[in-house]
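S1.2 Input.
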Amino acid sequence: MAACGAGIAWVRRTLDGWNVAADGGDAVLVAAELLANAAEHAGGILRLSLERRGTLLQIAVTDPSPEPPRMGEHRPDAIGGHGLFIVDRLTLNRGTRREGGGKTVWADLPLPSPS
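S1.3 Output.
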C-alpha cells in the first residue's frame, strides 16, 4: 500500500504544479480508488499517469492483470466494495484498455479549477 500513498502524493504534487486546486478533491479520490484496486485486486501498480485534455483530466492506472474491473451490486450498508461505484459517480467517463499482458483503467473528470 506504500505505492498507493506515493501515487496519491504524486497526484497532489502534479496538480499543484499545474496550478489547480491544492487538494485536487475528486481527482485525488479517484486516483486513490484506482490505485487501491490495482494494488488489492490486480497484482500491483505498474504505472500511474495524469493527462490534461482541454478541460478534462484523465487519470490512468496500469496493472498486470488482464481482467477488467467489475462493479458489483452497490450496497450502501456494506463494508468495502465501494471503489468503482465512487469512481463511476465522480467521473464523466471511465473505461479499460488492454496494455501488454495487463490493462489500464482510466477515468476522465473535469480538470479542477485553478487555485
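S1.4 Remarks. The mean pLDDT is 89.
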